[in-house]
Amino acid sequence: MTSQEIFAQIQKKSSFLCVGLDPDIQRIPKHLLKEEDPVFTFNKVIIDHTIDQAVAYKPNLAFYEAMGPAGLETLAKTLEYLPKDTFTIADAKRGDIGNTSRLYAKAFFEQMNFDAITVAPYMGEDSVGPFLEFDGKWVILLALTSNQGSKDFQVIKNQSNQPLYASVLEKSKAWGTTENMMYVVGATRGESIAEVRKLVPDHFLLVPGVGAQGGSLEEVAKFGMNNQCGLLVNSSRGIIYASSGEDFGKAAKKEAILLQEAMAQQLNIYCK
Amino acid sequence: MTSQEIFAQIQKKSSFLCVGLDPDIQRIPKHLLKEEDPVFTFNKVIIDHTIDQAVAYKPNLAFYEAMGPAGLETLAKTLEYLPKDTFTIADAKRGDIGNTSRLYAKAFFEQMNFDAITVAPYMGEDSVGPFLEFDGKWVILLALTSNQGSKDFQVIKNQSNQPLYASVLEKSKAWGTTENMMYVVGATRGESIAEVRKLVPDHFLLVPGVGAQGGSLEEVAKFGMNNQCGLLVNSSRGIIYASSGEDFGKAAKKEAILLQEAMAQQLNIYCK
Lengths: 272, 272
Prior knowledge:
homodimer, EC 4.1.1.23 (chains A, B), TIM Barrel, lyase (chains A, B), decarboxylase (chains A, B), 8 strands, orotidine-5'-phosphate decarboxylase activity (chains A, B), alpha/beta, eight-stranded parallel beta barrel, OMPdecase_type-2 (chains A, B)
């Protein structure tokens, strides 16, 4: 998928919403447990009720791996069920030595046909490069995450006063292009997003942490939007667990519409 | 497994060898392809022929995920086949926000019953902590890896002249203990291992990169060994692909014995 195609979806749906498909068997509505594959049924209902608002879907691999080998079957079925014009992200945070990263890339891009995978930067260029060798596929590199622990290492300043996440952006942007590389940038601080935009003005950013983790959509748009939108904002629990009853699909849709309407406003201000 | 139990195995076998079970279906001997589960058969033969020399086995998850859901069944069978007194490491390099790391921990420690998992430090304490909550289980945190890309970020110096990998060691050693935390430290530079030992004198180190990646066992032992040995040195390709013929088991044994004998010498010098 090209950045133009992603932007076309954003314009069509007036939305830059990514829905995190992170289903926990212990949290999905109880009436689903009688289904043959409760998690797949849950995902289908969530997708059906959010597809008009979401331009991207992001299953986090941990939720599927925790179900054992059957979980990967559920993930594969979920991917097949998603319309081909939605952007699909394997939230896997992989990263290993070159030969091994190549195997992960093959698993996620060829066998599972994801459009993108999240990758951890710690092991450097040869751990990221193999993911960049697939036409039309994307690496989404962790830069500044939104969790508490992001303060442990990501903000350590080097001898030029540059925090580690900025070194990651600066160095890694030479490894790929704006057509195969995005960055994870947490939404917890508006000024950090502004700093990120100075270094990577044209790359798409995947922004977690709006909602459950406390970021504000207005701040993210103000500091992060570019003329191709350049943002995918993720919401997981706020949407998929909006209700624990039989109405969970409708409740998810309601939350997705609230976010989409807020996103349409921001697109109207910064990205006409 | 406790560090005492690991050390007891090291003494019993006069070896601190870890065998990387990274089987690639395209590289395993051709005569195995007629087997029902060629990779499991391959692993069994490698284990049978190295069990007297190896105190630990380390399957890299990428090799199993690349085989799809069936690969995880192969991995589970391999784990069951390993004797209970060997130390088993899931080389998975995971690391995610707290709730998600907890799911990975459950998958690797409870469902698959690994003794240890490799974890990437970039997301900080709350991404590592959930792995430390399991009795008798271990986190092996990436500190200084042995690949080319380790120079991209791991050696960036902070304003106190401390490289990132040293900050990782210093900060993270407070998160766990010498009974639930080890570190990955590449063998490519002896003086780096000496630096690591200053910060974590008592932790076990998992050392890749001896052999294929160019480190010297003598250097590793000289700078890295402590009075409980404190080292697990990994070899993957050098052992498992020692021959591509029907004699691959015997060839693997021969390579394992060469390493074990060299290790016995080092134990004799530094850890009597």
